[in-house]
Every structure is written in C-alpha cells, then in structure tokens.
C-alpha cells in the first residue's frame, strides 16, 4: 500500500462523497495522535492539514522528549511523574524515534540558580524513581567541577560547583508525526496535506456537520461531511474556531515564539545534551544539544502576535541565545556568522488554565500573596462588601510561584484543553509533544461517547499505550538489537555500514521495504544510492509533495546536514519534477519555495544587515 500523491488524489475524491464519523482539522502531532487512534478503532476518519504534515509547531520543537526535572525543585511530583510516564509510553509505541540521551546539568554558585549540588541529587533520585530507572544503566550520578570540565572544557569555570547527569531522550519531532500519520492511513484513515478548512457546514439547528475545504494545490473547493469535527490545529486553534462567524469566539490561546540556532560542532563540541541556567537571572534554562556533527541551542520564549504561517527570527532572538551560549561557554565566542541553520516555532499555549512548562514556566502553584488576596476578596463578596467583578479581577491577577506576572510568557501553561462548543466543534489544544497520545486518548473517549449517544454508532477504542506507529513494530526493550539486525540486512544487500545505519535509524522497521530495492534501484542523477532510496520512499510512502517536505521534515538535511545541502537540492528537485511531471513553472515555484526556506534557516536577512 502506498501513501503518495496518487493516494491524496483518491482520498480527495472519496471525502467528497463519504459521510465521515470524524474529521480532524490539523496535521501536527495532536491531530496525528487523534487520527491514529480513530482509524485504528475503525471510524471513518479524515484529516486535513493546510500545510505539510508537522509543518507548523510539530517540526519546530527542541527535539527532545524532556522529563521536566526542574519541577522537582519545588517537589511538583505529579507533573514530573505524568511526563516521564507518558514519555515511556511514547518510547514504547514509537521505539525507533526517541533515543536515550543522558542529560548533563552543570550547577553554578549563582543567585537564582535552579539547583545546588544537594537539591539536584535529591531531584535526580526522585526523578529516577518516577522514571523507573533506579539501579539501571541510566541511573543518575553527580560529577565534581573537575569532572564536568573534563567533559566540557569550554564551560564557564567561575562558580562551577559540579553537575548531575540524568536520563533524557532525543526526539525527531517531524518523524514522530509522519509515522503516526502513516499508521492512520494504513488503518484506513484519509490523511490529506495542503487542504485548508475555509468554513463550516451547518444543519438547520446551527450545528456543524462538516467543513468547506480548499485544495491548496489545485484551488478546488469542496465540502466534507462528518458527524463530528475536531480542531487540533495548534496555534491556529482560535482561528479555526473563528470560522464560525455566527457567534462571538473568545480567544483561548497565547502563542509564544521559540527559536533554535545550529552551529558546526567544530565551533562548540558537547559530548551530550546539556541543560543550563541562562545566567540572566530570568528563571529560564536552555539546552545545548549535539546532533549529526552539529550543535544546536535554544530556546527563547516570547509572546507572538505576527503571521502564524511565517514566524521569523529577529535580531533580539539571536542576541538572547548568543548571550546565553557565550556566557556559559566564554571561550567559544559564537557569533551570528557561525550560525549554519536555525528554526522558529510557535507554542500553542493556553492562557487560562494551569499546568507546567517543562522548560521554565508555571507549575500551577500560586503565590502566597495571590492566595491571600483571593481569600480576602471572596470573604468580602460573601459579606456583600464587594461585587462579582472584584472576585473576577482577583482571579484574573493570580501570580504563580515561578511567574513574574502577566509580562512573563514563560509562565503561561503548557497544559491542554478539550472543549465541545455550542456549534458542536470539538477543540483539543495546548499541551506538549510528550503528551500527544494522552491528549488524543482523552479526546477519543469523548468522540466515542458522542458517536454512540448522538449517532448510535459504537466503536471499541484500541489500547493507545501499546498501539505502535508505522516503523515502530519492534520490542521497545530491544531497540538497539533490532536496529542492528536491520542494519545487517542492508549491509548484506550491498550498502555500506554508515548508509544502512542512517536508513534504519530514520525508518525503523519500514527500512526493510527500502532494502528490498537495493539490488534493482537506479540512483537518481546527482544523488547517492542512499539518498535516492530515501527520496523514492518518501514520495511513495510518506506523501512527500515538495522538495522542502523531503529536505526539512522527512529528513534533517536542511537543519543538521547543511554542508551537503547545496549539492543535493537541485538533484532532489529534478527527481521530483520528473516523477510528478511538473511544468517548468511548477518546478520554479517549488525551487523558490525551497530556497526561501533555506535562506530563512540560514538567517540571510540578519546576516546581510550585519555586513
């Protein structure tokens, strides 16, 4: 079974005539999580995404499945327990994607430090118990200052007390999305990228019964009918809600922008992911992560009100991260010119509920002063001294323990929200990539109930804690052994070790489909056999429709393989143009689209301003 541009054409024709059980708007990690569970349950399911799958927030994370150890400083055990428990579930259902990567946490004798050497050991021991790794090879340990510097000699020496090492995981965010999408498609779901919801269809009672959609590749508009519609569009959730012009929609989200910068490891080499206080006394921490002969660092967290489709990296974003990296690694002297690539994304933060930001925000606890203020106002309200407005004002001014008030975007919740509105639209918003399966599971329970009570249709939900994604059909306890076996298959077919490892790491158990072609496949002009096999698979099995889809989201060429990108981009464009029979105009369009993405990643505009 293929999942290609031809699949897309067939699915568009099918959704025009079907009465779906469920239509999903948004093809990031949240929508993909709902899609896989709905399709596996046998629901007639379709998903529409106005860009490529994962093109928005879900390919622009810090690319870690992070456990949230900083919250153990305040003994916020429940949050960390939930996070590490769900992280283990994700590792079980997508075992080829999250990879163990022990995290180094240097400890400094500074004002407002997140941890000292005593508290970090207490936190790590508790963390290990919650993550169930006590006594294993991944159990935490502490390092002296000398031992930390032996690992990372460029770290700032002044004030360094030592460090801790604990288990965390690297992640390939875009691959996690596409593997969920592919499994949903394999289970009968109709997954459509570059199809935009432009309006709703209503019954006589004003309830939503479908969506007016537009194929952004052909400009054709058509209706999609569905019993239920769920909005999983991330930062666009409010904009989708506002498609219903018959009612006033109160915005729920406060998106924030985060950026990451990539440099060659020759400019700054770190042996493992490292998590540091910024040194700016702003209550934030940042990551420095090695990946594919590169080092990347981030993230920022600032309010965003610009173009959601095209967030940009600004000079102040870069200055902030360069200040952080050069303060902690003072001999590195990283400059804008060292930045080889970058990415920017929006977080769909909910402005009204409580929750936890694993990277430096609100743990849900309010300050003593805020608590006392609310108690006093409620008491006066009960005594009829003040009215309801006074109570609402006090509630609206709550300050969290970690918050600096409403001016601090890092204090906004990373919690999630599930709501069914008056018009029948279900909206699932907020959350973190680690929580996607759990969020989808909660939505599916509501969807199951609504389909039964309102449409007399009964479905049995799969156990989503064990239902593995495409490419992940392996024992989660034997990932390394399974990948080694897969690599050997590739080597036996004639690939060299490095190429076989690259493909197995990228595609998991699906790599056997690729290895089957090694004997007969002819490489595309200008591309190696490895890259040709990867591109062929991406077009035939991963609905890769543009060069940017392949080079940025199906693979990491644009972000972490920048050295070879200029040599392969034209051959990739030529291969896709030939297969898809693009006109010269279409070919130029996709070439310009790719070059624009490269220029934005390269920070050409900012570098030009500094010349």
Describe the overall structure.
It is a single chain. With 611 residues, the protein is α+β, with helices and mostly antiparallel strands. The protein folds into 4 domains: 5-58 and 174-253 and 415-455, FAD/NAD(P)-binding domain (3-Layer(bba) Sandwich), CATH 3.50.50; 94-172 and 254-347, D-Amino Acid Oxidase, subunit A, domain 2 (D-Amino Acid Oxidase, Chain A, domain 2); 368-399, no CATH class; 476-610, Orthogonal Bundle (Helicase, Ruva Protein, domain 3), CATH 1.10.8.870. It is built from 20 helices and 20 strands. The protein has helices spanning 5-17, 29-40, 77-93, 117-131, 145-151, 173-186, 237-241, 315-328, 368-382, 388-396, 436-455, 479-492, 497-507, 511-515, 529-541, 547-554, 557-560, 562-580, 584-602, 604-610, and strands at 19-25, 45-49, 64-65, 99-100, 103-108, 141-144, 160-166, 169-170, 190-193, 195-202, 208-215, 221-231, 256-264, 274-277, 285-291, 294-298, 302-303, 341-347, 416-420, 426-430. Strands 1, 2, 9, 10, 11, 12, 19 and 20 form an 8-stranded mixed β-sheet that branches. Strands 13, 14, 15, 16, 17 and 18 form a 6-stranded antiparallel β-sheet that branches. Strands 3-8-4 form a 3-stranded antiparallel β-sheet, with no helix packed on it. Strand 15 (285-291) and strand 16 (294-298) form a beta hairpin. Helix 2 (29-40) packs across helix 11 (436-455), helix 9 (368-382) packs antiparallel against helix 10 (388-396) and helix 12 (479-492) packs across helix 13 (497-507). The protein is globular, with a radius of gyration of 25 Å. The chain crosses the membrane at residues 20-40. Keywords: FAD, Flavoprotein, Glycerol metabolism, Membrane, Oxidoreductase, Transmembrane, Transmembrane helix.
């Amino acid at each position: 079974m293929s999942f290609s541009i031809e699949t897309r054409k067939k699915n568009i024709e099918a959704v025009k005539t079907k009465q779906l059980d469920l239509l999903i708007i948004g093809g990031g990690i949240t929508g993909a999580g709902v899609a896989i569970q709905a399709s596996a349950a046998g629901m007639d399911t379709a998903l529409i995404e106005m860009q490529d799958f994962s093109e928005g927030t879900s390919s622009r994370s810090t690319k870690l499945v992070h456990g949230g150890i900083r919250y153990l400083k305040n003994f916020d055990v429940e949050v960390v327990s939930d996070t590490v428990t769900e992280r283990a579930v994700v590792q079980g259902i997508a075992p080829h994607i999250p990879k163990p990567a022990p995290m180094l946490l240097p400890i400094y004798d500074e004002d407002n430090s997140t941890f000292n050497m005593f508290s970090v050991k207490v936190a790590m021991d508790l963390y290990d118990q919650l993550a169930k790794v006590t006594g294993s090879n991944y159990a935490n340990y502490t390092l002296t200052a000398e031992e930390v510097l032996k690992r990372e000699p460029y770290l700032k020496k002044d004030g360094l007390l030592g460090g801790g090492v604990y288990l965390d995981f690297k992640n390939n965010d875009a691959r996690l999305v596409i593997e969920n999408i592919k499994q949903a498609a394999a289970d009968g779901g109709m997954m459509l990228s570059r199809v935009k919801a432009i309006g709703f269809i209503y019954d006589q009672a004003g309830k939503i019964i479908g969506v007016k959609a537009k194929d952004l590749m052909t400009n054709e508009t058509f209706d999609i009918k569905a019993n239920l519609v769920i909005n999983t569009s991330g930062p666009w959730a409010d904009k989708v809600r506002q498609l219903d012009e018959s009612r006033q929609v109160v915005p729920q989200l406060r998106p924030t922008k985060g950026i990451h910068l990539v440099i060659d490891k020759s400019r700054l080499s770190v042996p493992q992911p490292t998590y540091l206080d910024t040194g700016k006394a702003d209550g934030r921490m940042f990551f420095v992560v090695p990946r594919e002969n590169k080092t990347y660092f981030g993230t920022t967290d600032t309010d965003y009100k610009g173009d959601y489709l095209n967030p940009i990296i600004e000079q102040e974003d870069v200055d902030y991260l360069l200040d952080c990296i050069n303060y902690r690694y003072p001999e590195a002297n990283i400059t804008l010119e060292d930045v080889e690539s970058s990415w920017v994304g929006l977080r769909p933060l909910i402005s009204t509920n409580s929750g936890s930001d694993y990277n430096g925000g609100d743990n849900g606890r309010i300050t003593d002063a805020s608590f006392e203020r609310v108690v006093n106002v409620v008491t006066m309200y009960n005594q009829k001294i003040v009215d309801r407005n006074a109570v609402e004002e006090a509630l609206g001014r709550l300050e969290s323990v970690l918050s600096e008030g409403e001016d601090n975007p890092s204090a906004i919740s990373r919690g999630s929200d599930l709501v069914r509105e008056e018009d029948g639209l279900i909206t699932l918003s907020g959350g973190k990539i680690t929580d996607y399966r759990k969020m989808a599971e909660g939505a599916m329970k509501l969807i199951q109930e609504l389909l039964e009570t309102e449409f007399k249709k009964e479905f049995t939900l799969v156990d989503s804690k064990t239902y593995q994604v495409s490419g992940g059909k392996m024992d989660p306890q034997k990932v390394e052994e399974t990948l080694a076996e897969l690599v050997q298959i590739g080597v036996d077919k004639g690939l060299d070790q490095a190429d076989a490892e690259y493909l197995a790491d990228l595609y998991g158990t699906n790599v056997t489909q690729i290895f089957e072609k090694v004997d007969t496949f002819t490489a595309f002009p200008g591309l190696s056999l490895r890259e040709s096999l990867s591109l062929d698979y991406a077009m035939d099995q991963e609905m890769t429709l543009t060069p940017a889809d392949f080079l940025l989201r199906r693979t990491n060429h644009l972000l972490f393989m920048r050295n070879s990108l200029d040599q392969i981009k034209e051959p990739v464009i030529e291969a896709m143009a030939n297969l898809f029979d693009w006109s010269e105009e279409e070919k130029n369009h996709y070439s310009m689209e790719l070059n624009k993405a490269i220029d934005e990643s390269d920070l050409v505009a900012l570098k030009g301003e500094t010349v």
